[in-house]
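Sequence only, no structure available. Ideas?
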Amino acid sequence: MKDCSMEVMEFSSCSQSGRCETSDKLRVNINGSVFEIDKSTVTENCEYFRALFQSGMRECRQEEIQLQSVGALGFLVLLQVLHGERPMLDSDQIVEAIECTAFLQVPLLTKHLISIISSENCVLMYHTAATYGVWELSHHSALFIRDMYAELKEDVHTLPRKLVEYVESLRPSSYMAVCSHSPSSELLHDIQRTVCFLDEEQNEWRVFTHLPPCTSTTMAGVAVLDNKLYIIGGVHDVSKRVVEGGFCYNSNDNSWSTICGPQQLRYDFTLIGLEGCLYALGGKSNMKVLSSVEHFRVSKGSWGFISPLPCPTASVVSTIAMNRIFICLWRGEGATDIHEYVTEEDRWILVTTLIRQHSYGLYMVAYRDNLYVMRNGPCDDFLLCVMDCYNLTLGQWTAVPGQYGNSKGSLFTAVVRGDSVFTLSRHVTTEYTVEDNRWKVKRQMKGFGRIGSIYTFLMRLPKATASLMENCPGLTTKQTVRDLSVCPRLSSECSDNI
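Reply:
I predicted one. Tokens follow.
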């Protein structure tokens, strides 16, 4: 790592060269290291500076102020984040960055720290954030630790007892799956219309809840946001008649409710949940491929159009990495473009292009600052999956060694939890560990045993779930959620809350 004073000089030089030419400047002195900052940027993003400049105190009129309670290294990280960078941090930087966001009250820096939590730094993040009172970061670190508790238990038990107890009080993420189903009726109740979870201790797929009869998961949008499952749209049958609304499942009170659907009726689209919003990307309407994108802010309960996709696309390949939305758009001749949606600016930007010939299928999953793009092998190897990895920090592609999957399954339903990647097929559920940019089989468990398209995701389920549910194949138990068998079609007849 470079000397801290050198880093400060380089950043100051960069600032002086024109990052904030139109705004007033302020010098910040931290133990002899001087930073030139833009007043408007720090006022907008830091509660400390906002209060300082609105206080009328003598310091707010000075050209240089002294900061005693933060380190130069942490303040440098703060400035990098405020200028749109997303640096990966070592232990010293993490500690000082947490100290900095605690003292200066910088939500954007806290958000970045949450986005880079990993198995190497989660315990440090958790302890330091708890010490400095950065509760949001502390909680997210604890959730990450809970998902990898078996591997991290020895390190966790070096922490104060209260911190250990808090981690143990949390619910771990469960690997979940639901198949493609059209709406049913009370007379033709389909016992297969269920949401299931993997009981890893017993090596069984078990039913968690039933789908409401008027819900469709056929060509629907399925996503998890704030530990709630959302199923939007979908079609009734081969006529492609679209279900006009959506459903939300809350595991905390074991209930379903309805929400309104997007303004543009669509099917075969992608649904993404991020930071209190659902995003409906592309899809089809009346057999026409769409480029439009809508977002649903849960707190407001309404949909609105945002910047459209770069081109019309159905079944958009997507993932979330470091709290950012990425999509793959295949444009033929072996070229796959990766775009990022910049939420603050409401625009799509081209990140990189992968040039690879592939025969069939495309999927993408994120692990830390890596995007893994998966495709079938060439021609006669189409049942095998090959991968390429794009590192967002370095801006480099790497071919992942080996081929994955076989005639009994593939990686096109991959979900990441901690350092593990879960995939499944009818025959086998496989857990991989990611080591040195290669996926290694950790264990194999029972397959899902259902036919049709499968949606997979993670949710945190109530602790007593396993003892209440039955195995997937022989479901005979009564529905464990409120009775929705009399639910009418979701055009205007369904109530907003069931």
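Residues 171 and 463 are 7 Å apart (CA to CA).
Hope that gets you unstuck.
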